[in-house]
Amino acid sequence: MLTSRLPGRDAMQGDHHHHHQQPDVVLIGAGIMSATLGVLLKELNPRLTISIFESLDQVAAESSNAWNNAGTGHAALCELNYTPERADGSIDVSKALAINEDFEVSKQFWSYLVERGVIERPGAFIHLVPHVSFVSGKKDVDFLRKRFAALRGHHLFAGMEYSESRDELEEWMPLIVQRRDDTIPMAATRMSIGTDVDFGALARMLITHLKSQPGVSLHLRQRVTDVSREKDGRWKIEVKDNTSGTKYPVCAKFVFLGAGGGALPLLQKSGIPEGKGFGGFPVSGQWLRCDNPIVVDRHFAKVYGKASLGAPPMSVPHLDTRIIDGKRSLLFGPFAGFTTKYLKSGSVLDFPLSMKPDNLWPMIATGARNVDLTKYLIGQVLQSPWSRILALRKFMPSAKLRDWYLEVAGQRVQVIKKDAKKGGILQFGTEVVAASDGSLAALLGASPGASTAVSIMLEIIERCFSGELKSSGWQEKLREMIPSAGNSLIDDAALSEQVRARTTEILELRDDQSRVPA
User: Fold this and answer.
1) 431: which residues sit within 8 A by CB, 6+ positions away?
2) Do residues 348 and 341 lie in contact, with contact meaning Cβ atoms separated by under 8 Å?
3) How do residues 312-333 score in pLDDT, each as one tens digit?
4) DSSP bridge partners of 235
């Protein structure tokens, strides 16, 4: 592990590059993940020098961009795929509890940044929006009733409401209930403490703060093309200036591959044994978007349903209130598609070039077992505008074609990893891959992603900066940033209540403060 990090040469401020940079830390990708890790590390050790490299001409323009992700504030309050039904009919809530705790950790860190003045106005990135789970049909109603019973007794889900009353459901989500067949049973749960988060706005605030710190530099339009190990143990990254085409090296003690879908190819180039066998399956996304204030004003919630039979978890239909740049809109989707690009701005060669001898069998084995997913994606690609509206009308019977238009979402790269029994498995989630000596880490995968960014970055710090993290100084600072650090919010009801009350106040997550007019 990295037990000693003396600051290297001060990196230049702004968007210029220096051909002989030797920062302590290199962050590849200027999205919410790199921004979060950079701020955490700089708070823990202000002497660290950090260089951030981004291939685009602005920060947070890929997966972190508000229109490229669901922006749910994933807290497992409404996502039914986080509470699977076991073979015996019982509901497994362990994943929901873990994700909810992770989101509470994120809220603590954001609250600390508000108190420090790093974030001047919480309403610039987070708003209170109820989270609702909605189902119809006897089988799914029975499932939701069991899910409610399994969650309502836990303090993290205190306040969850359940209803099968049409009148009450119409109050919660009029656009979804009106014109719906009375003869088909329906039910919903509602959590009023849900949020909508603009991770693009948050990432920009964090990067702006980092740029203002001594020893931190941001380099836009600079693409990292190679990552290799030097004899002295440091990492050499090769950077290409997208404007001039010139290439130059940068050496660092620690490298974070936080470039979304672009992280996998760089992980492969690093050659670390821990990265062997990983592959990535790219999935594109689309939304139907509505900005008509007459329609938008009648829906204020994030309503998640159940994925259709044979559809992957990423396809769970939901009708979301989004608040971006102070304006409310509605999004419905997601509609999936297939592309061989790993980034929206990537190359069609990304997927084929990622196939290596060490991951070829895991990728083939995974593909053979996921024929239904391939069929589903082909069907999604072939959808017409009218077929998308029909899908929306199953969820929102009163939907009119003229009120909605297509919005292209960001790329997701689902993790494929080796499996001793199956050869390879497709993993829906995120995966941290780190070198054994802690000198390099990569983040692969997608949802819940940004919502749990703080917990994911803390895992990287624990794995890659373990020596420093044991020091009293780092421990004290960590508890200042995240008061629940070292304790379980899942197990400690009193601490959970205390933490949630504090972050609610600091982040201004009360209904009278957070509601934005349509």
Assistant:
1) 278, 415, 417, 443, 444, 445
2) yes
3) 656 688 999 999 988 999 999 8
4) 229, 252
Q: What percent of the chain has pLDDT over 90?
A: 67
Neighbours of 301 (CB within 10 A): 25
The phi, psi pair for 367, rounded to 5°, reads: -60, -40
Which of helix, strand or coil describes residue 152?
coil
Residue type, 231: K
Q: Radius of gyration (Cα) for the chain, nearest Å?
A: 23
* Average pLDDT across the chain, whole number: 88
| H or E element that contains 479 | helix 472-481
Q: How far is CA 279 from the centre of its chain?
A: 19
> Band of the pLDDT at 8, cuts 50, 70, 90?
very low
DSSP string, 410-445: --EEEEEEEETTTEEEEE-SEEEEE-TTSSEEEEEE
Given the structure tokens 């660092």, which residue do they identify? 252
Q: Supply 193's token pair.
A: 């403490």
Distance between CA 55 and CA 70 in Å, rounded? 23
Classify residue 86 by its DSSP letter: P
3-state DSSP helix/strand/coil percent for the chain, to nearest 5?
A: 35, 25, 40
**Local structure of 452: helix, strand or coil:** helix
CA pseudo-torsion sign 474, 477, 482, 484: positive
Q: Tokens at residue 329, please?
A: 């809109």
* Range of weakest confidence among 93-97, 101-105, 127-131, 273-277: 273-277
Write out the two tokens for 208: 């702006």
Following DSSP, what letter does each residue of 4-56 receive, concatenated?
A: -----SPPPSTT---TT---SEEEES-SHHHHHHHHHHHHH-TT--EEEE-SS
Q: Determine if the pTM surpasses 0.85.
A: yes
Are 415 and 426 in contact, with CB atoms under 8 Å apart?
yes
Quick check: 334 and 286 in contact, CB under 8 A? yes
pLDDT at 460: 97
Would you state the structure tokens that stand for residue 327, as one six-digit string? Answer: 């304006």
Burial class (CB in 10 A: 0-12, 13-18, 19+), 384: exposed
Q: What span, in angstroms and rounded, lies between the C-alpha atoms of 170 and 184? A: 15
Beta bridge partners of 191: 131
pLDDT, tens only, 24-68: 999 999 999 999 999 999 999 999 999 999 999 999 888 888 888
Integer Cα distance of 239 and 332 in angstroms: 39
Q: How far is CA 247 from the centre of its chain?
A: 31
Residue 500 in contact with residue 104, Cβ under 8 Å? yes
